[in-house]
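Our preliminary data section would be incomplete without showing what the modeling component actually yields. Below, a chain of 741 amino acids is followed by its predicted structure, encoded as tokens that our downstream tools consume directly.
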Amino acid sequence: MENVHFVGSDDDDLYSGFDNVHPALDTRQLEADSGFQEAVRTSYGRRPPTQSRGPTTGARLTSGMAPRLGTAQGTGVILQSSMGPVGGGGSSDGLRRPMTSLRGTGYTSTSATFDPLNQASKGPAPSLINKAEESPEEKIKSLERRVMGLIEESCMAASRGELRLSLDRAKEASSKERSLIRQREQAGLSDGHNLDLTFSVLFNLANQYAANDMHTEALNTYQVITKDRMFNNSGRLRVNMGNIYHKMGQYNKAIKFYRMALDQVPNTHKSMRIKIMHNIGLVFVRMGQYSEACTSFEYIMQEEANFKAGLDLVTAYFALGDKEKMKKGFQLLLDCQLDIDDDEKYTASSDDNQSRLILEVIRNDSLRKLERQMKQEAERAILTAAKLISPVIESTFSAGYNWCVDTIKQSQYADLANDLEINKAVMYLRQKNFKDAIETLKMFEKKETKVASTAATNLSFLYFLQNENEQAQKYAIMARDANGYNDAALVNLGNCCFQSNDLEKAREHYLAALDIDASCVEALYNLGLTNKKLGNHEEALDSLLKLHAVVRNYPPVVYQIAHLYQLLGDNDQASEWYLQLLGLVPTDPHIHQRLGQIFDSEGDKQQAYQYYFDSYRYFPSNLEVIDWLGSYFIEHQVAEKAIIYFERAALMQPDEVKWQLMVAACHRRSGNYQQALNTYKIIHRRFPENIECLKLLFRLSSDLGLKEASEYALELKKAERAQEQRDSRAASGSSRPGSRR
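Predicted structure:
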């Protein structure tokens, strides 16, 4: 237990020993050290010397000795540390240094380079391995890829419509391909010539020349391809050359190249041969050689009949004027097969949800759209041929249509017979034969829903044009009931209500038509007019602006928009739209008058006069414009110029005394009193009871000192008394009970 010491015992100091320092580092005795104090006093504020000056003024470092702080007396204290003498000690080379130097720590110019990772022992890094040079084959492959990339860029630019860029890329590809051939020859690799690449470059270049209407260059490029026997089937490109000659109007050369191409196409490629024969027939039609054209089209109809060739054959027979052949060609057209499935497969035949979903998908897919397009083209070809030959194949127009209708009914396209019947009614309308048109359309009243709706719509419009509003409304309702999605029927019904001044109902019908077809231009326009008449100017403007977005620059629509802005008080917008309308119809006098009214209301009389004068120049019989122009010159104290306008108004309305009085007033204002007096006398002879004329005659005669002044005074009194009597009789008659007004 003697060796156990408890914490806090009085006879033991826990912190003993920490105050013991080396005598050289003990600063407690520095105040008593006279040598140190003398050194401080003499060197205060000075930097240590950069070099020792002697054994008595600096620290001399020698090997094996500790550094000494120099004093004035040459004595000092040696500084020691646990690591050796403080200050770094003397070096073996005997170099001297100041006390501020770092040489003692090893940082000298002669010391080793900084290498913490010991990289120097490994030697210098090896040099990078140089990439091996490409072989000629690799260079050629790289250039081929570049050429193919340029061809693809050219084709993509052409598909976007950037024809100039596509031509530039095609030319660049051609240049690169020629340099590729030279590199092959230099490398001795001519045997590996890529013929497909050369063909692609030349073919694309020729196509781009043709697309840019550089016909000569295109023909030369195609010639290079067709003359090179290394290219297989290059003779087919003569079709393209024939197309270019056709575009240039050189029809003989076009036929020559078509026939050369036909000779080089084997019989196994039947579709290609048919297309070339069709081109030959069309060129013969262009040349007016219809017999040769018929030969080509007949060959097509025998080998592989199609609707385009059939329509062209009927057209060629029509040009020849051969009625029997026209009938024969029409029958051949009806024999063409459409080769599409029936619509039954698109109708749901079971309650299976999966089947219904599949039908929803395929009902509007790309294949279905293609089938619709093919069907529409077939129907268009048949109906166009029927419309073409119906007026000429029989003695009368009606008989020709009846033959076509009967022939169609006996074919697989019997559904088109109804459309042709309706077209027959339209042809009657074009001939102003309303009676036969109505009779033809009435035949459809008891037929199937869609056809009956179409016929009733046309009947409604016919009766509307004949101002038979009740009949028009009756058939419009029939058309709507037969087909609830018939927007034209709703428009007709709205027109009937508009004509009957039932504007709210008309507005409802137009809105219903727009619910079915938002782009129905008739409904939009009529809705705008209806809202305008109802005073709903903002709604009317909205409808007409939508219509303007659909049908750009249609003058009636632009006028209605401008007039609505004028009614809304927005003269800036109104004038802008009127000016736009003047760009469409620059000679419309009414538009000039409207612009004149706008500038007149804004106080710009000079600009208003310009538009009023233009309106008068295009239509000199507008009394409002004449009145404004005459008043304008009177207001500007140029009364003599106003005379010609008021004289024209007096000629237009000879029984209106106002204009003749204005002429006389203009003479009086211009100082021509005698002419004014004569004019007033003429007016008095024609209108003896006119009080205004008598007053002016009396005043002017008095001013001129004429004797007739007293006579005019008496006549004026008589006229005034007669006017008073007429006014009193009129007043008493109106106040009498039961009087008729």
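The mean pLDDT is 80. The CA atoms of residues 187 and 442 lie 86 Å apart. Preliminary results of this kind motivate Aim 1 of the renewal.
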